[in-house]
């Protein structure tokens, strides 16, 4: 725990306002006060970081570097204060100054460094590495703009720039003295050295610069502070010199803007060739900057690159950083002069790859044309890697097994040659892991079975986890206090201990307090809904929440079909549907994903029909909260009674939202998909609502799926789908949802919505029945909290550290407590 010194904190706070902002204290705005507090906290972080670094260097500790295009770290002030152990003393100090800490926390803006689960997972991993006192660093891109900020206009998603004021962020430390000059474009000239060895020359290349910025990552108890290093692109003078010499100043400025645009926005649109090129350059930029920085750190203490893997582990978070295979080989062979075989052995032993998808279309491919244009030397290396690998494939499976060779080759043949980044990552890594048991099994059996048959020892599972520090302690402080009062504080560092709460499952007083925490969170969310979207909801109703990316496989449509059924039951049948229910949606649709955007429109149209009808809206409400992000998730998750995790079985790799909801006492309604299966194993089937087809049943049904058969079997489904077709929910825009209707009615509906509709309705009826028994419901909610210790990201990181990275905690005995 960091020692909180009121005097030094006050001096830092006042100095920032007076001498950095140039204002008297009484003129400081809320934003000024926030920045001043962050500045004062940052001094604590930096002191601990210096001590952490010395500890790693003294012990010559092997270090892991986590490469990811996304890090959704969320607001940092409250998280840092809690992890440092100074939240309460800081709040008391600010109160004496007439400042409310909670108000300041709300002033902070989410860093625009990611989009979804990939980035939230990466953030949890950094928290766990620091909390476990392990030497682990993140590498990412310092985006000026996130994917987009979502607003809703007449029910339609509108995208607006998601600007994060990173240039003025008090958390972002600019390393102005450091930079990496990166080659790009040009061509390769075939040459030989004086000994006759092949020595390619990358000529006529352009250059641009990567400048590092650091965010300090505090571990729980304040013993270790690691670092997330983010790179911004800048133009090199060398990049523009020829143009300047030609006197074309405007063209030179345009080139400068183009080079700096590399880190302007997360995932630029790849619908046009220029967008594809920019998106690929982003991935190259991340990899090239990160590898150079890692090598710079390595060379501070070591010189023998044949032992590089003994000191360095690099984890590739999905396929975006897969070019690290070629970049590390290029540096080892071209710059460090290792022979190919040695360099390849070092590369494979250094790199490890995490797969995050079961959708073949989601596996990245890049055209050979783009690679040859942007990074010609890397393309050369990839072709050489592939040639040597295919020779091994032929030895293993036979020279005439053309089907196997075609599937395993890094180069995908066709009208246009493409580089398969997943194949490159698998071939160039010593470990390939999935992120849930079922996902890892399906990776081996369905996604890349050919690679598994060749290297079964490479493949393993690392079920995802989330940090309890942010996802209970920070976002649900009253629940955290209740748990701590019952079983002590040790659970925050060791979530396995939370099982001790099971002892209170028959304690009426504890269950009443547990329920009161949930009710207070629901009231807070109801207030937020009123203030945000001007809708009044009943905090005593069932809060049923589906908060995640809008996508057909996540089946927000199935949720809507059920809501339409409830609406029609009340409206037309005049029947009571049990306890009042509030269905809450939140999530973004990719800008070019028309169907997903149409689903958002349907949510709003159904919400309008429900919420404006006095015959219905006392029993049913539908809410869409725009611009889903970490800080919004921190409001939604503690308030949920029911967590919707209803993806078609076999399509969700893992999920982490399901874990966060369960930790905070929401009961899951879900399919046997992703980590739902492991949540079921931990919390028990009596504390969840599992429905629908499993993976094998989905695979068996798809070839013979006939949606009309399900309509004929069930009048409820027939009424719902006909209401959709008849424009009941789109009277002013007839035909707008016809494509959704056609998709649902098609035998080619991969998501099998109708097949799971009847069991889904039955599961919701069971929820309605059970919710009317408050003590029973609270007991089951408590069991979810008590039995989710397995889903701490600390457990996940320990498994990575022991089984993939070969790193260990670096802590002094006197710091253990």
Automatic annotation (TrEMBL):
CDD domains in UniProt: GT35_Glycogen_Phosphorylase
Enzyme Commission no: 2.4.1.1
Reaction(s) the record says it catalyses: [(1->4)-alpha-D-glucosyl](n) + phosphate = [(1->4)-alpha-D-glucosyl](n-1) + alpha-D-glucose 1-phosphate
Subcellular localization(s) per the UniProt record: Cytoplasm
Top EC group: transferase
Cellular component aspect of the GO annotation: cytoplasm
Any one Gene Ontology molecular-function term assigned to this protein's record: glycogen phosphorylase activity
Cofactor(s) the protein requires to work: pyridoxal 5'-phosphate
Entry-annotated residues carrying N6-(pyridoxal phosphate)lysine: 660
Pfam name, any one: Phosphorylase
Annotated PROSITE patterns: PHOSPHORYLASE
GO process annotations (BP): glycogen catabolic process
InterPro entries: Glycg_phsphrylas, Glyco_trans_35, Pyridoxal_P_attach_site
Family in the record: Belongs to the glycogen phosphorylase family.
Free-text function comment from the UniProt entry: Allosteric enzyme that catalyzes the rate-limiting step in glycogen catabolism, the phosphorolytic cleavage of glycogen to produce glucose-1-phosphate, and plays a central role in maintaining cellular and organismal glucose homeostasis. Phosphorylase is an important allosteric enzyme in carbohydrate metabolism. Enzymes from different sources differ in their regulatory mechanisms and in their natural substrates. However, all known phosphorylases share catalytic and structural properties.
Protein name: Alpha-1,4 glucan phosphorylase
Organism name: Desulfotignum phosphitoxidans DSM 13687
Gene expressing this chain: glgP2
């Amino acid at each position: 725990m960091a020692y909180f010194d009121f005097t030094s904190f006050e001096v830092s706070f006042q100095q920032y306002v007076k001498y950095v902002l140039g204002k008297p204290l009484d003129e400081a705005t809320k934003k000024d006060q926030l920045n001043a507090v962050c500045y004062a906290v940052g001094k604590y972080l930096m002191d601990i970081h210096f001590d952490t670094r010395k500890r790693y260097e003294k012990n010559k500790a092997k270090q892991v570097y986590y490469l990811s295009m996304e890090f959704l770290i969320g607001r940092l002030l409250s998280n840092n204060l809690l992890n440092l152990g100074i939240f309460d003393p800081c709040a008391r100090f600010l109160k004496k100054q007439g400042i409310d800490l909670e108000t300041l926390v709300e002033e902070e803006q989410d860093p625009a460094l990611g989009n979804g689960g990939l980035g939230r997972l990466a953030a949890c991993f950094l928290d766990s590495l620091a909390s476990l006192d392990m030497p682990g660093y993140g590498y990412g891109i310092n985006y000026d703009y996130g994917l987009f900020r979502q607003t809703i206009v007449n029910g339609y998603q509108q995208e607006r720039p998601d600007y994060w004021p990173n240039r003025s962020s008090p958390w972002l430390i600019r390393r102005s003295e450091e930079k990496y000059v990166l080659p790009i474009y040009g061509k390769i000239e075939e040459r030989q050295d004086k000994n006759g060895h092949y020595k390619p020359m990358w000529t006529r290349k352009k250059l641009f610069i990567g400048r590092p910025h650091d965010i300090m990552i505090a571990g729980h108890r304040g013993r270790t502070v690691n670092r997330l290093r983010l790179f911004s692109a800048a133009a090199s003078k060398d990049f523009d010199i020829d143009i300047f010499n030609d006197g074309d100043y405007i063209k030179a400025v345009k080139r400068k803007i183009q080079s700096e645009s590399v880190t302007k926005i997360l995932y630029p649109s790849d619908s046009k060739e220029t967008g594809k090129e920019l998106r690929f350059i982003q991935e190259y930029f991340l990899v090239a900057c990160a590898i150079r920085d890692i090598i710079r750190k390595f060379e501070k203490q070591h010189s023998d690159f044949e032992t590089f893997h003994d000191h360095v582990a690099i984890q590739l978070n999905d396929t975006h950083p897969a070019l690290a295979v070629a970049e590390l080989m290029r540096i080892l062979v071209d710059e460090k002069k290792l022979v190919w075989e040695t360099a390849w052995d070092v590369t494979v032993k250094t790199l490890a790859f995490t797969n995050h998808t079961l959708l073949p279309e989601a596996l990245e491919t890049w055209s050979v044309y783009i690679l040859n244009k942007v990074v010609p030397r890397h393309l050369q290396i990839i072709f050489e890697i592939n040639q040597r690998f295919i020779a091994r494939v032929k030895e293993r499976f036979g020279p005439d097994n053309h089907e196997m060779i075609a599937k395993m080759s890094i180069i995908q043949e066709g009208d246009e040659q493409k580089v398969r980044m997943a194949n490159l990552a698998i071939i160039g890594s010593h470990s390939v892991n999935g992120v849930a048991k079922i996902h890892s099994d399906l990776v081996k059996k369905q996604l890349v079975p050919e690679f598994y048959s060749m290297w079964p020892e490479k493949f393993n599972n690392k079920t995802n986890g989330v940090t309890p520090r942010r996802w209970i302690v920070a976002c649900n402080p009253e629940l955290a206090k209740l748990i701590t009062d019952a079983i002590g504080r040790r659970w925050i560092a060791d979530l396995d201990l939370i099982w001790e709460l099971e002892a209170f499952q028959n304690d009426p007083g504890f269950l009443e307090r547990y329920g009161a925490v949930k009710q207070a969170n629901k009231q807070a969310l109801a207030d937020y809904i009123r203030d945000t979207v001007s809708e009044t909801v009943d905090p005593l109703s069932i809060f049923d929440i589906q908060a995640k990316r809008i996508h057909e496989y996540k089946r927000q449509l199935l949720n809507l079909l059920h809501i339409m059924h409830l609406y029609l039951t009340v409206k037309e049948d005049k029947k009571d549907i049990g306890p009042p229910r509030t269905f809450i949606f939140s999530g973004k649709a990719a800008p070019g994903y028309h169907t997903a955007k149409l689903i958002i429109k349907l949510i709003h149209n159904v919400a309008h029909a429900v919420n404006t009808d006095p015959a219905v809206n006392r029993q049913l409400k539908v809410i869409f909260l725009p611009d889903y992000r970490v800080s919004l998730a921190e409001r939604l998750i503690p308030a949920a009674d029911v967590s919707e995790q209803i993806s078609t079985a076999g399509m969700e790799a893992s999920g982490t939202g399901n874990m966060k909801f369960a930790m905070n006492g929401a009961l899951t309604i879900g399919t046997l998909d992703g980590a739902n299966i492991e949540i079921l194993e931990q919390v028990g089937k009596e504390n969840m609502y599992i429905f629908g087809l499993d993976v094998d049943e989905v695979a068996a049904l798809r070839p013979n799926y006939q949606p009309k058969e399900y309509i004929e079997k069930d009048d409820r489904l027939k009424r719902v789908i006909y209401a959709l077709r008849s424009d009941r929910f789109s009277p002013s825009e007839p035909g707008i949802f016809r494509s959704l209707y056609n998709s649902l009615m098609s035998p080619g509906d991969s998501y099998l919505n109708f097949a799971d509709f009847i069991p889904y309705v039955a599961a919701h009826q069971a929820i309605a029945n059970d919710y009317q028994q408050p003590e029973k419901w609270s007991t089951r909610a408590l069991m979810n909290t008590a039995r989710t210790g397995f889903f701490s990201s600390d457990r996940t990181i320990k498994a990575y550290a022991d089984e993939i990275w070969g790193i260990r905690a670096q802590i002094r005995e006197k710091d253990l407590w």
